[in-house]
Amino acid sequence: MTADRVSYTLDSTLETVNNAEETASRMAAEAGFDDEEIMKISMAVREGAVNAVLHGNAYDPNKKVTLAFELTVHDLVIVIRDQGKGLDVSRIPDPLAPDNLMKTSGRGIFLIRSFMDVVEIHPSQTGTELRMIKHVHGNPADSKEAPQ
Amino acid sequence: MTMKSSTRQVDGVTIVDLSGRITLGEGSVVLRETVRDLLSKGQKKILLNLGDVNYIDSSGIGELVSAFTTAKNQGGDLKLLNLTKKVHDLLQITKLYTVFDVKDDEAAGVKSFS
User: Fold this and answer.
1) Which helix (H) or strand (E) holds A40?
2) Which chain B residues touch A110 with a CB distance below 8 Å?
3) Which of A95, B30, B79, B84 is 20 to 30 A from residue B92's alpha carbon, by CA?
4) What is the pLDDT of residue B5?
């Protein structure tokens, strides 16, 4: 199996969010995804980058965001790491719950899970790793979400 | 990448024509300040024309919710007009499509305020 892997180390800025989205869009296009899938992948990466920059690193100029893409025969694997305190997965709200429906935030992880085939969140004391997989050409070995 | 906003009056309704992206940062701020400015001037019937909004992220969705709630809390009303497929799909996924009053015809949208 051949694999192409590329990794970026980025500042904790809004520009990083936009760059991550654009890079994801380009990688997804190169992987052969159609326009709708490209939009979903790039939006998932944007949301992941927002979480890393805002909630993880809290715009701290001393903290970096790592963004990595790996294209295998079957998958586009995207990993975003921050250097924050570690996301408390148990506190991620369900934005579809009636009490949360009209809240002005809290939809990022939900959208990521909606758009990607596999989503894993690995928090630690040194940061959070978000691993997302989109199967190439509709690989049937789907599982919507891996155990965390 | 930026978002543009312009307003016009039709039969007592303020139509806000938005174009570009409503995302974290500039796009969300433009929307927030536009709606806040209208409400402060007493223009409380607001129709957001999203026909040229080609992208919206979770922050932008939150900003739409905020604009809707703010307008309601001030005795006004805010409706959405001309959703693109992307924005329509996002509102469906997030179950907000039925929360917002969504119109696909401007004249009917304006009339619905009366």
Assistant:
1) helix A35-50
2) 58, 94
3) B30
4) 93
